[in-house]
Amino acid sequence: MSASPLPQSTRPDFAALREDFPILHQQVHGKPLAYLDNAASSQRPRQVIDAVTYYEEHDHANIHRGVHTLSQRATDAFEGARKRIAGFINAASERETIFTRGTTEAINLVAQAYARPRLQPGDQVLITWMEHHSNIVPWQMVCEQTGAELVVAPIDERGQLRMDEFERLLGPRTRLVAAAHVSNALGTINPVAEMITLAHDRGVPVLLDGAQAVPHGSVDVQALGCDFYAFSGHKMYAPTGIGVLYGREALLEEMPPWQGGGDMIRMVRFDRTEYNDLPWKFEAGTPNISGVVGLGAAVDYLGAIGMDAIAAREQELLAYATERLLQMPGLRPIGTAEHKASLFSFVLDGVHPHDIGTIVDHDGIAVRTGHHCAMPVLDFFGIPATARASFALYNTEEEIDRLAESLLRAREVFA
Amino acid sequence: MDLKDLYRDVIVDHNRSPRNFRQIEPPRHDAEGFNPLCGDKLHVYLRLKEGVIEDISFEGSGCAISVASASLMTEALKGKSEAEALTVFERMHGLLAGSDDNIGDLTELGKLAALGGVREYPTRVKCASLCWHTMKSALTGTGTATTE
Question: What is the ipTM metric for this complex?
Answer without folding.
Answer: 0.89
